[in-house]
């Protein structure tokens, strides 16, 4: 029974991450960041890459940042994004997301 409790605890631990990844816009943004490299793309570049409106992209990035999945770095008026959660990074590799250099 101890193994079952451990398994259930893992499910509770991972559920927020899968909820975060369950949104197509957020997942597209994460894949774009992952492919392009850490702190390589701005909000507007991510909007263009994913085909989403700038406001939608900004809202999704705020959600990802609040959850700890991405980190932002400001350079002047531009904000660049990077994946900051190693588990999210591993999951992206698991389902086949690649890096540009791959």
UniProtKB/TrEMBL annotation:
What are the protein's UniProt keywords? DNA-binding, Transcription, Transcription regulation
Concerning NCBIfam families, the annotation shows:
HTH_metalloreg
Q: What CDD domains does the database record attribute to this sequence?
A: HTH_ARSR
What InterPro entries does this protein map onto? ArsR-like_HTH, HTH_ArsR_DNA-bd_dom, HTH_MetalResp_TranReg, WH-like_DNA-bd_sf, WH_DNA-bd_sf
This chain belongs to the protein called: Transcriptional regulator
Q: Does the keyword Transcription apply?
A: yes
Species name for this entry?
A: Corynebacterium liangguodongii
Give the GO molecular function terms: DNA binding; DNA-binding transcription factor activity
Q: Its domain of life?
A: Bacteria
């Amino acid at each position: 029974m101890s193994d079952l409790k451990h398994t259930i605890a893992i499910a509770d631990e991972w559920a927020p991450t899968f909820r975060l990844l369950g949104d197509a816009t957020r997942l597209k943004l994460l894949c774009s960041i992952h492919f392009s490299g850490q702190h390589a793309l701005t909000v507007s570049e991510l909007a263009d890459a994913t085909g989403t409106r700038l406001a939608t992209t900004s809202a999704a990035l705020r959600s990802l940042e609040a959850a700890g999945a991405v980190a932002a770095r400001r350079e002047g008026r531009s904000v660049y994004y990077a994946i900051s959660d190693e588990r999210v990074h591993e999951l992206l590799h698991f389902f086949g997301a690649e890096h540009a250099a791959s």
